[in-house]
Design a protein that fits this description.
The protein is built from five helices and 18 strands. Strand 10 and strand 11 form a beta hairpin. The strands form five sheets. It has a six-stranded mixed beta sheet with strand order 13-17-18-16-15-14. A four-stranded antiparallel beta sheet has the order 1-2-3-4, with no helix packed on it. It has 331 residues and is α+β, with helices and mostly antiparallel strands.
Length: 331
């Protein structure tokens, strides 16, 4: 059988030739007039399951399994007179409680014993099949947004095959891998950007804190470093407390320190704190406690001094004064 097709703009002409081979295969060849060679485009059947009614009534063919033929759900294969057919596992009498099994990724059965209605929805199709005990299956063969169209089968279902979902699964897996990869890359970029912004903000904050101290030659410590040095300002490390706030003992880079933490309820502002740092930094003397550095981060303001194991000189004077008074009373 030959036929010729001409494109709408009259520029391309395609001839087609269909051949049925002695082995029962259908081969379709195409020829463009620009090229006189016949090119085979389709060969049917492609596989064993393309053969017509190969598995009999209520049978389903799957080219990915061995044996190829199986039975639809609710049916089982039985041998009768040297033939194998699919029979219902449980006899049905169209009574209450019976229903339909939804089959996916299946080729529709042969429509020799089917009736089509173009004005019924899938729900109406189901009702029509339930109301007729001779109806064995129904489907909507037209894939449209409205979903209108009903195909009803009466009698045995033949020429059914199972389509492999490997391609679909591979595509789905590929989409999932690409989606997860993009999400991971975006998440990583977000973390890197957040880290970059945080470090940039910290450098700017440190620079602002340093510029606020003017020419004071003292070290700026981070809050996290001071927090680690004092074990998160543990109560056991608390040395005392005054109007400015509590004082904590700590160890920083192997050196014992005393951290004066300005209370959040203190009336001392940033300018007063800056003046205190500058003033103490300039008053460096061997008989004065040494200021090692300071910390400004958020609402936290701290001064870091060297730790004095024997306490300050005023403690000595207080002890001496009380001791002398005690001596006078004894005499």
């Amino acid at each position: 059988m030959y036929f010729t097709a001409l494109s709408s703009n009259d520029t391309t002409t395609v001839s087609s030739r269909t051949v049925v081979t002695p082995g029962g295969k259908l081969e379709i060849f195409q020829q463009k007039f620009a090229n006189q060679d016949w090119i085979k485009s389709i060969t049917l059947p492609v596989d064993y399951c393309d053969n017509y009614r190969v598995c009999g009534p209520y049978g389903s063919c799957n080219a990915a399994t061995t044996p190829y033929c199986g039975c639809l759900k609710g049916f089982e294969r039985k041998n009768t007179d040297d033939t194998s057919v699919c029979r219902q596992s449980i006899a049905l009498d169209c009574g209450p409680g019976e229903g339909f099994e939804k089959l996916s990724s299946m080729k529709l059965p042969d429509t020799e014993n089917a009736v089509f209605s173009g004005n019924m929805s899938l729900q109406d199709c189901e009702v029509a099949c339930k109301n007729n005990c001779s109806c064995t299956a129904y489907a909507n063969p037209i894939i449209t947004p409205s979903g209108i169209g009903c195909l009803l089968w009466f009698g045995g279902l033949t020429d059914v095959r199972v389509y492999s979902q490997n391609g679909f699964h591979r595509k789905k897996r590929a989409v999932m891998v690409v989606t997860l990869s993009i999400s991971a890359v975006l998440t990583l970029l977000g973390l890197v950007l957040a880290l970059y912004i945080r470090r940039k903000w910290k450098k700017r904050s440190d620079a602002e804190s340093s510029s606020q101290m003017g020419s004071a030659d003292v070290t700026l410590f981070s809050l996290s470093k001071i927090s680690r040095a004092t074990n998160d300002f543990m109560v056991d490390n608390k040395l005392g407390e005054g109007g400015f706030g509590p004082v904590y003992k700590g160890v920083l880079e192997g050196q014992e320190i005393a951290v004066k933490r300005l209370s959040k309820s203190s009336q001392q502002g940033l300018d007063e704190f800056k003046n205190e740092v500058i003033c103490i930094a300039k008053l460096q003397h061997r008989n004065l406690v040494k200021l090692l550095g300071y910390c400004i981060q958020g609402n936290e303001k701290m001064l870091i001094y060297e730790y004095m194991p024997n306490k300050s000189l005023d403690s000595f004077f207080i002890w001496l004064s009380s001791h002398l008074i005690l001596k006078i009373h004894i005499c």
